Amino acid sequence: MRAIISRPAMSALIRKHRWLPAAAFLTTVLALGIVLAVHLGIFWIASAAAATLATAYAWGYASRALWQVNWPALDHLNRRQYAEVWNALASSPEKAVAAACGELSEGQLQSSGTATARELIELASIGSRDDVLEIGPGVGRVAWALAPQCRHWTGADISPNMLGYAADRLKARSNVRLVQLPNVGLEPFSDKSFNIVYTTDMFEHLDEIDRWQYVREAFRVLEPGGRFYMDNIDLESDVGWARFAVNARLFAPLERPPYIPTLSTAAELTAYAKRAGFEQIQAHHRPPLVIVVAVKPLSL
Fold first, then answer.
1. How many beta carbons lie within 10 A of that of residue 92, not counting itself?
2. Would the pTM count as exceeding 0.85?
3. How far is 63 from 297, CA to CA, in rounded Å?
4. Any idea what the Cα angle at residue 123 is, between residues 118 and 126, rounded to 5°?
5. What is the largest CA-CA distance in the chain?
6. Sheet holding 194-199, edge to edge
7. CA–CA gap between residue 34 and residue 52 (Å, rounded)
């Protein structure tokens, strides 16, 4: 039997019994107090103090590094219950930002959104005359920077909680509209109603068949000559593989949470675009992302 518990095993244990790190710390504090009270000697005092420091570190590490412990397990939900999953994760503005973008301050959030907006403008040629649709805008990270650069920006999301927080962040933008999706797809929008459709940092949360559904729907709602942009974490990049490998270790013995990211390759995203009918398909590797940009034929 191995004497040291592996990190995946520790992660599994903490996920199953989230009270353990705090309980262990409080137990060692109590033990240290007893040792000091009865004057058991320097060896026992040092041992109890070391145990207290170790459990304090373990508690802090569990809270910070093992991020999945901090999120609700949501064991009662499956991956495709997207609205329920993301409403649960977005139970407050702070949690919504953390769930959608990581733990970012407003300044970092704006900086991150601006960088993605620049990439969209560069790769999808977004301009001041374009009507733009974002699928899965989250808290409006990208829209805050991109909306002033286009004629009209629409965000469509399946989570009403996320849309509510996005509305608060984007209230100063006069050319913004937010729409709740009733299910997977772009049912509220008519054919050929946008110049640009894009989705960023969203495919990682979807089942592969639902990714395909959104690509097909993007083709439908785009005008002929309209551009489509999609990305995901790149499984073939070093950073992407490292993330995949960590999750493979942590969740190997566990049921995967419904929000755990699933990665893509350029071949996967390119196949969706080709099968949907797009042309001029280009794949860009910008670690940790793979980005595919495509154009709807003018003849349609």
1. 10
2. no
3. 50
4. 70
5. 88
6. 176-180, 152-157, 131-135, 194-199, 222-233, 289-295, 279-286
7. 13
Q: In the structure encoding, which two tokens stand for residue 199, read together?
A: 């989705």
Two tokens at 197?
């459709």
Per-residue pLDDT of the chain (300 residues), as tens digits, is: 333 333 444 444 444 455 555 566 667 767 767 767 777 777 766 776 666 666 654 545 444 444 444 567 787 888 899 999 999 998 888 888 888 777 568 888 889 999 999 999 999 999 999 999 999 999 999 999 999 999 999 999 999 999 999 999 999 999 999 999 999 999 999 999 999 999 999 999 999 999 999 999 999 999 999 999 999 999 999 989 988 988 888 777 777 888 889 999 999 999 999 999 999 999 999 999 999 999 999 987
Report the C-alpha gap between 13 and 45 in whole angstroms: 29
Name the H helices within the chain. Answer: 7-16, 20-38, 42-64, 67-70, 82-89, 93-101, 106-124, 143-146, 160-169, 208-221, 238-251, 266-276
**How far, in Å, CA of 172 to CA of 237, rounded?**
38
